[in-house]
Structures are given as structure tokens and as C-alpha cells.
């Protein structure tokens, strides 16, 4: 039987109905270069703690599903060359072959739900890729939002995607997209895009109340909480547009496809902005970790009051 290996601190917090925030690991294994990735992962965990929650980074190590990693385990993920990028499709393979795998948003969501964790922080979720009508490249992340009861704090969908098609897809699947203190969809590196967000909430307590209402009414599925990158850390949308265009052309020329697309584009964009995009990426993940911890604390409070 495949079981989940939950870190003692996380288990304790869950038992006591205290706030826990799940964190993904593809961002460590495939989203950023070493050593920035390990530093980011450690500071994100510290940020979650600072805002009153217990961090639970999720990954597969030697085929074991782990919820809550040690420092050494984070270094292993950040340093090893042979880490798989695992969305739901790849999980059983990684487990049955005793592999290391960084879990994407989709795989992390489903493991978090099984562990009893309701709030999860990442950078940007996957979505509908540009030209998806030809490539069919639509991230598993979106289907996971349809299937899994977890709220994910992100800085919108990654700017390399088709943001309006991503919003349409989420609407079809019945997934709320909530703008935290914003009426416009954040575009990952940039705090705003031209796309309207129909639902805006201005406090973690309001977000916790929405979660509680949704799930207690039996509305199955996840929630996207879109939290803009801090203004002083953003890269203007217009500036990113050009860089992304170039990166997409490079990807096409090199025939990059499948699950390599997203890591390739993130690395290309970082190269073309001389690391500025990487800095913005780290800043937005930290910002998401802080909000996720506050939402988890507010939600845990509601749960305790209901008991
Ligand atoms: N956010 C980041 N960096 C990342 C990712 C998200 O700041 O690397 C990862 C997440 O794990 C997300 C994945 O689920 O990219 C999407 O990959 P794809 O487009 O192949 O579904
Ligand atoms: Mn894809």
C-alpha cells in the first residue's frame, strides 16, 4: 500500500487544527537554478512560519510521498540532476520506480488534500498555453482545480500562457478565481494584466469564509487566489510581452514540447532579463507564502470554532 509520509510537525499541527500551508517542489527541481532554488525554498518555509502556519513542502523522494521535508531533502531536490517533474500523470510511475520527483501544482494539490491540508502556496499555476488549439497543451493544474478541494495562492497564471483562455477554462470547470486586493488578473512577473477578475476579496478572513462556504455547500473543487507580485518587485507587463514572445519563438525553433515547455520558458525568460525575472519570481513566491499562511490561520480558526 502506498502511504503518505507526513513530517511530525505537520502531523501535530493537523491534529490540533492549526494552520498548515502546502508548498510544491517542481519550482525547486525545475523552476529555478541551484542554489537560488534551495534558498527560495528555505525562505518560503520561514515566511510561512513567520505568518503563523506550519510549512509542508511536498515531493516524492526515493518513491516515498513526503509531506514536509527536511533541509537535506530540499537540497537533494534542488541539486540532483535526476529529479522527475511529476504532475498527476507521473506520480504512480515515480512512486513505483522509487524515484525522486518534484510535484507540480496538480500533484501537490491532490497529495495535500489527502493529507488534510486546505491551503497551498506556489508561484504561478499552469494553464492554457498559447497555440493550445494546435498543441493541446493545457496544464493538468486546471483539471486538478476542478477535482480537488484545496485553495491555491499564486501570482496568477504564468505570463508565458494565454491568460484569457486560462480564465475561460477555469470558468467552465467551476473554479473561483479570487483577486486579493485586485480587480485585474495578476500576470506572474507583473502585478496586473488587462483581464478582469470577477471576484475580489481584501482580507484573509474573507477568503477563509469563501472556502468554508464553498466546501460546506458541497461545491467540489479548488480555488485560485490571485495575489499580485509586490509593485516594487514587478516587471512591467509591456516589457515582459516582448521577452516572452522571443522565448516562445526559441522554444518553437528548438522543438521543445510536453512537460519541458514550462521549465524551458522560465529559464529562457530569466536569461533574457539577466535574472530580473528570477528575482521577481522569488519575490512573488514569498509574497504568496505570507498570504497563504494568513489564509490558513483564518481557516483553521473557523474550523476550530465550528467544533
Ligand atoms: N510556479 C513557478 N515556477 C514553476 C511552476 C510554478 O513559479 O516552476 C511549476 C508548477 O509546478 C506548475 C508547473 O504546476 O510549473 C506547470 O507545468 P506545466 O505547464 O507543464 O503543467
Ligand atoms: Mn503542458
Please identify the top-level CATH class of the largest domain. Answer: Alpha Beta
**N→C terminal distance:** 32 Å
Domains (count): 2
Largest sheet: 11 strands, mixed
- CATH fold field value of the largest domain: Indigoidine synthase fold
| SS summary, helix count | 13
Could you give the count of β-strands? 11
Structural class: alpha/beta
What are the bound molecules? Answer: pseudouridine-5'-monophosphate, manganese (II) ion
**What low-confidence regions span 5 or more consecutive residues with pLDDT below 50?**
none
Sequence of secondary-structure elements: EHEHHEEHEHEHEHHEHEEHEHHH
Beta-strand content: 5-15%
CATH superfamily of the largest domain, please? Answer: Indigoidine synthase domain
What sort of overall outline do the alpha carbons produce when their principal axes are compared?
globular
CATH architecture of the largest domain: 3-Layer(aba) Sandwich
Roughly what percent helix? 40-55%
Mean pLDDT: 96
The Cα radius of gyration reads: 18 Å
